[in-house]
């Protein structure tokens, strides 16, 4: 059996993205549903990959070392200040 650390170290980004999508949607690309055990295992692999290979700083992502990034309300406001999500004209409402 291969060591999970070796699997993570050798995993291409494309495979990680497919696993992340499967964990988020609860189904594989072909539409077949993940069992609960598959979903748990897939989520664990995704989190390990994020912790070891990605340098994420977004809110509620896995940072290096396996810590969860939790930004304060002030940090989130600062991050999104000045960015409008959507703009509507009065007649569109």
Total beta-strand segments: 0
Runs with pLDDT <50, length 5+? none
Chain-averaged pLDDT: 80
Q: How far is the first residue's CA from the last residue's CA?
A: 59 Å
- Listing every helix as H and every strand as E from the N terminus to the C terminus, the arrangement reads HHHH
Please work out how many helical segments DSSP would assign.
4
Which structural category do the helix and sheet elements fall into?
mainly alpha
Describe the structure.
- With 93 residues, this protein is mainly α.
- The protein is 49% helix and 0% strand.
- The chain is built from four helices and no strands.
- It is extended and about 60 Å long.
- The mean pLDDT is 80.
